Every structure is written in C-alpha cells, then in structure tokens.
Amino acid sequence: MAQLLATYTNGRANIVIVGRNQAAADRIVASFPEPPYPNETNSITVKHEFIQCDVSFISNVRVAVEEIKKRYSKINMLVCSAGALAMSQKITTEGLDESHVLRTYARTKFIYELQPLLSNDRAAGEDARAMIILNAATSNKVDLEDLDIKKFSMISVNKTTASYNDVFVKVMGERHPDLAFIHIFPGGTDMPGLHKTWYLSLAATLAKPLLRRLEDAASSMLYPLLHPYYSQGGFWLTKDADKLTLGNSINDKVTEKVWDHIVSRAQLE
Q1: What keywords were assigned to this record (predicted)?
Q2: Nearest-10 crossing angle of helices 106-123, 154-175
Q3: What is the mean pLDDT of the chain?
Q4: How many angstroms separate the Cα of 190 from the Cα of each of 92, 148, 195?
Q5: pLDDT at res. 247
Q6: Which of 26, 94, 176, 219 pairs with 225 at a CA distance of 20 to 30 A?
Q7: Of 3-7, 26-30, 122-126, 192-196, which range is least confident?
Q8: CB neighbours of 1 closer than 8 A, spacing ≥ 6?
C-alpha cells in the first residue's frame, strides 16, 4: 500500500512506516519515486520515514505514538495492518495474549491516540481516514463472560478479535462523525506470513491459485482511502470495498462491554 501510494503521488506524500524491521522498511522506501526537494519554487520537504516498534507490546505502541506526534501535527491516512493468525496462546510480559494485542489492542491504541491528528487534518479541510485490515462485519457472537478469550481456540480468537475491531470502528465513527473509520477484509492473500511454518506453506502453495497477489490486495485496500464515498463515518467493507452492515450480534450491550474491555486492555482512557 505504501509503495502504491508513493507511486500514485509520484513520491509527493509524507509516508511513515511503523514496524519491527528497519532493513525491510529501507527496501520499501528505496522503491518509492524520488520526492521533490526544496528549491526556489518549492519550499516543501517530503519525508519517507521509519519508526521502529514491536507492536506486540502496548508500551511500545505508546512510545511510537508519541514519536509520531513529535514529527507530525496532522494525519491524512492511518492504516493498521499488523497481526497474525492466532495459532496458540502466548502471554506477554504485560500480561496480555500476544494475538489479542496484535489483532486488537495495538491497532485500537494507534487510532485512538492519533485521532486528534486526524481531526487536525479534517480541520485543515482535508480528508482524514483510519483503516483496520482484518475481517469486517462477520457477525461473530461475543462471549461477554470471557472477553479475554481464556477458553482459547484458534477459531474463537480469530473470530472474536475481528468483532472487537467492528465495535471499535462503530464507536469511533459515532464519536467522530466527521472522520472516516474503516474495517476491511483483505481476502485470502499470498502473504509472507503464510510461509512461516511448513504446514502453512504447504497449504498456501496448494491454495495459491485462489490467493490474491499482494499488489491486487494493496490496490483494493487503498481504494477506500482515496475514494470520496468513504470520507465520513464508520465502514465495514469486503475485499472489493463493497459495503457491509453489522449483524444483530453487535448490539448495544455487546458494544458497551467490548468497548470497556478494549479501553482497559489497550489503556485508552
């Protein structure tokens, strides 16, 4: 997505990549078109930057957020795509399940804490949109007696955390109707993460004809960040950016309980 945005703007966009791997980020940035540099007729400096952050720890997210705030006063697009298929339970030193942090708490903390910068952008008369890439509007039921999903199973964690992101987008869209909050499903995509283990790699190889190319998925994800239709409110989208609606499983009681849970675990308020 970063490469596509850089290409569409001919390098004329400030792009910040947040992640663990400096070398990987350097390779991505090196693929960008050269941005224009200040001269007699152009006083604007375009930046392509990297901020190191292992987002499996909320404390690291907090540090990254503060660093972003130091460098920028407003944000046009904020995309949260970190995560992995929850294969097993792993409790971090912060006492949280790593898969929950990657799939919910880190994403929501980035967006919640950086919302003022999105609002600054809107106040300047520009579009401001935040996007979560996971699995939108799947109508998964939430066990309100086990919001930490201690009764772990791969299916329950992957489904339930998707619903938590649905709730987050719903609440943020209602609280800040002038901004856009998007939860989008990328579809089955041939990602490097599918080749971390031999059995996943085998499954990915067999399923390759059914998987999307990274470039195609990136184009679909970037579309609602640029199209005027998705400029305000909460959106839940398919891999082709078709609009979805939340099912009855995300009712007022579930919304309240899940929101309070996210606030507590992600340390939002």
Answers
A1: Oxidoreductase
A2: 20
A3: 90
A4: 28, 30, 9
A5: 86
A6: 26
A7: 192-196
A8: 79, 81, 218, 221, 222
- Domain ranges for the chain, please list them: 76-266
DSSP symbol at 45: P
What angle, rounded to 10 degrees, do the helices at 106-123 and 252-266 form? 100
Cα pseudo-dihedral 12, 240, 178, 173, rounded to 10: -130
Is residue 38 left, alpha or beta, with left meaning phi > 0 and alpha meaning psi from -120 to 50? beta
What is the phi/psi pair of residue 9, to 5°? Answer: -95, 5
Nearest Cα to Cα of residue 158 among 83, 68, 74, 258:
83
**Is residue 43 scored above 90 in pLDDT?**
no
80 three-class SS: strand
Q: Counting beta carbons within 10 angstroms of the beta carbon of residue 187, is it exposed (0 to 12), middle (13 to 18) or buried (19 or more)?
A: middle
Q: Could you tell me the pTM of the whole model?
A: 0.91
Query: Can you list the alpha helix ranges (DSSP code H) found in 72-153?
Result: 98-100, 106-123
CA distance 31 to 127: 26
